[in-house]
Amino acid sequence: MDGLTPAENRELETRLQKRQVKEFMAVFGNLVDNCFQSCVDDFTSKALSGRESGCISRCVTKSMATQTRLGERFAELNAAMSAEMANR
Amino acid sequence: MFGLGRAKPTSAEKIAAIENELKVVAEMHSRMIKVCTSKCIDKAYREGELNKGEGVCLDRCSAKFFEAHQTISEQLQKEGAARGFGGPSM
After folding, report:
1. CA of A15: which chain B residue's CA is closest?
2. Which domain holds residue A73?
3. Number of domains in chain B
């Protein structure tokens, strides 16, 4: 692919930033869904119990650790896959 | 313009192509996280940290995910071609 002009680069930057915001919102949404699903099951009250809150907090921390680890693996694997496809 | 090949891509096309490629990669990333979380992480959330077993499981899950992606992609192309489907290479 030909290189991009500075103007094209700026346009790309803008688009990517928008995309990043969208992706963050998606991650946030998945986190809420996932942690709620896993941790909340007691509807005898309308407030989160201590147990549920603790679970949610641990769920968030663990989910972020998971994202970090998988992010690293993904970058390695993606780079390897791209290199392998380029050499075919 | 007779005899010339494909016209040069416009600015918009170039940018869209790059954006699209990144989109594909980002989607794969997101699916991998969903699937490996579901396969490796205990939903009881007893601790806030990844334990060793979970960590190793995530590493192996991501490697297998990529391998499965490639295997499926290749098989799909083979079988698709045999059945007469076209399709972009993945």
Report:
1. B19
2. 6-87
3. 1
